[in-house]
Amino acid sequence: MNRDEFREGLRGGFPIMVAASPFGALFGALAVDNGFSIADAVFMSAAVYAGASQMVGIELFGNNVQPWLVVLSVFAVNFRHVLYSASIAKHIRHFTLVQKFFAFFLLIDPQYAESERRAERGLPVSFSWYLGFGLIIYFPWLVNTAIGAVFGQLIGDPKAIGLDVLLPIYFLGLVLGFRQRDRFLPVVAASAVASVAAMHFVGSPWHVSIGALAGVLLAACLPQEREPGEMPAIEKEA
Amino acid sequence: MDAQHLTLIYLIIAAAVATFATRVGGYVLITQLKHIPPRIEAALNAVPAAVLTTLVAPAFVYGGFDVATSMLVAFAVGLRLSSLRMLLVGWIVVMVIRHLIL
Predict the structure, then answer these.
(1) Does the pLDDT at position A169 exceed 60?
(2) First and final CA of chain A: distance in angstroms?
(3) A Pfam family matched by this chain, by name (chain B) (predicted)?
(4) What confidence score (pLDDT) does residue A236 get?
């Protein structure tokens, strides 16, 4: 371990930790609102460590969606990480197997983006730097989840204090974060129409899979413009 | 521990394994595959926006006047500002409608 690079990682991750903190608390509060205990919420933050998919998970769990569909949805929301891990491969090939295990576990959007940026500037993507950057975000994420969960238990009716609009707006913000991608508008339009129709004709939770499938199939069927192998732009989470 | 809580614990573990799989998957694939077929790549690329849209659109259509208004205003804010500000503005709008107007 290189102390200077570890500290450099801590400094780099600090602003992201601050920006992510309210979302950790929000997750904790909403998790409790959806039937989680405080320990469950912290356990999920510690084990999954992927904010957006955790929100999706508690929302579906709270609506009594079948467990396999909850896991599938978490998988689907996190699918972009496949692209990150493919693209980061060339920078972390020198990590040991154990180091790679930790590196992949901590591979959230900003971790990926900053690693790519660091490599681009010719700086070494060392394990010390990577771990420092990751841990300063990881542990506060757990603490903020616990804080949010504690306060969430004190809340009676979430509608009276406007908690129920936060998740749709949060997801709306995430959708907007993808708007630079190819075929964004047709994909969103197809998924929106299909999910609204499925909600009406089939009912929850099927609107999620039916709506998502419509957008994904459309993207595969539309004429392909981009050169194969080119990586898409990174979007920031939260 | 009752059965429902046990289901939740297993659910969280499964979600964690699924998430870890996505984070390792690309590395494993890229060291095997030379290149991904463009249509598969386009489909994968569309997954997050497609999934997330299904959690937004029905809430907007079936959520009622207060939720829809708050989401519209948040959308306008989100084109320019961070998602944290979107949440704040959307929350203020829904609280004003619920407690002061309706």
Answers:
(1) yes
(2) 30
(3) AzlD
(4) 45
Give the pLDDT confidence score for residue B1 in this predicted structure. 67
Please state whether the peptide bond connecting residue A228 to the residue before it is cis, i.e. omega within 30 degrees of 0: no
Per-residue pLDDT band at A170 (split at 50, 70, 90) = confident
Q: Where are the domains of chain A?
A: 3-154, 178-221
The identity of residue A125, as a single letter, is: V
Q: Residue A163: is its pLDDT beyond 80?
A: no
Are residues B71 and B27 located together in one domain of the fold? no
Do the Cβ atoms of B70 and B86 come closer than 8 Å?
no
Which of B27, B54, B98 is closest, CB to CB, to A208? Answer: B54
Reference A85, options B44, B68, B81, B76; nearest CA is B44
Chain A residues inside the 8 Å CB shell of B57: 191-193, 195-196, 211
The verdict on B54 and B75 lying in the same domain is yes
E-assigned strand segments in A40-157: none
Contacts with B61 from chain A: Cβ below 8 Å: 196, 199
For residue B15, what are the domain limits?
A: 1-34
pLDDT digits (tens, 9 = 90+) for A114-154: 898 888 888 999 999 999 999 999 999 999 999 999 988 77
Q: Are residues B25 and B49 in the same domain?
A: no
Q: What is the pLDDT of residue B94?
A: 95
State whether residue A77 sits within 8 Å of chain B by CB: yes
Number of domains in chain B: 2
Distance of CA B16 to the CA centre of its chain: 17
Q: What is the ipTM of this complex?
A: 0.82
Give the separation between CA A206 and CA A211, rounded to whole angstroms. 8
Task: Tell me the residues of chain A between 40 and 69 that have a Cβ less than 8 Å away from chain B.
Answer: 40, 43-44, 47-50, 52-53, 56-57, 59, 61, 67
Q: What is the number of alpha carbons within 13 Å of residue B53 lying toward its C-beta? A: 29
